[in-house]
Each structure stands twice: as C-alpha cells, then as structure tokens.
Amino acid sequence: MHPTEHSTNSGTSPEGWRIERHDHGRLDLVDAQGRRHADVDVLRAFPVTAPAGPVAIIAADGGELAWVESLADQPPGLRALLERELAQREFQPVIERIETVSDAEPSEWAVVTDRGRHRFKVAHADDIARQPDGGVFITDTVGMRYRILREAALDATSRRLLDKLS
Fold this sequence. Notes:
This protein is mostly beta strands. It folds into 2 domains: 7-89, no CATH class; 95-165, no CATH class. It has 2 helices and 12 strands; from the N terminus they run ββββββαββββββα. It has helices at residues 76-89, 156-165, and strands at 7-12, 18-22, 27-30, 36-44, 55-58, 64-68, 95-101, 107-113, 116-122, 128-130, 136-139, 145-148. The strands form 3 sheets. A 6-stranded antiparallel beta sheet has the order 1-2-3-4-5-6, with helices on one face. Strands 7-8-9 form a 3-stranded antiparallel beta sheet. The chain is elongated, with a radius of gyration of 19 Å.
C-alpha cells in the first residue's frame, strides 16, 4: 500500500485471504501468503440465475484469484464488503418505457428509466434475456445492464419495440 493511502474497510475469508477497500474506492486482495493484488474486481458467477450464489475475485489482468461459493458462509465483515461492491457494480436502471429503437445494428435505444431518460446501443438479440418471471434483462454494448421488471406491464408501444429485436 502506498504510504499516503490506507484501507478504510477490510474483510478476511476463512481461507486466509482478505479484501481491502482503499480511500480511492478500489479493492485489493491480499492472499494467504501476504501477496497484494491491486485493483481487483468482484463478480457474480451467475448474476441472473444465482444472484446469491458464487462470486469470483478477479485480478486486474483478468485471472481468478479467489472463489466464494456462498456469500452467506462468509464472515460478516467480508460478506458486507462484497455485497456493497456487488451492489455498486450491478447498478441496474429499471426501464419503464421504451421510446425508440433504431433499425440499425447495433440498435440505438431511447428509454425512460427509474433514473430518467437514457440512450444506449444493443448489439444483437442475444443481449435481450427474457426471464421466467416475466422480467427482461438488456445488456448494452458497453456491458451496462438494464432491467424491465415485468414485460406485460409495459405500454403497448414499448412492448412492440422490445419485440422488434427479440
């Protein structure tokens, strides 16, 4: 750690590695041998189908450093740190209305979300995932995910535009 920065939050796993959050907001993993891995990412393995399931800690170069089978099995401090990081990372605006979808590929969408109007691009139909509960996840070309809570609750125009690509 740089002498002028310090960890503001940390949690240790049962396997002996720990995660530290720094003042600048990034995470480091210190493995059981004491090696520091700077700027790691925390990713759910199956964010849609198993949101409470496995989590991977990924190095800056993309390699997996640690695997957490269940957040519920982690000590409270580590669990809280990982859950906060996942919540920030998985920010998902909820689409309330679809205003336009272009015919081009990638298609450009203009939507109204629970956080206001937004425009984004969707590369292809595979980036629109309908869920058994009637919800829909849409992933844009930069990896941001949007959610429709219930497709049936959308207005007729929004449903028609959604069906246009999926």
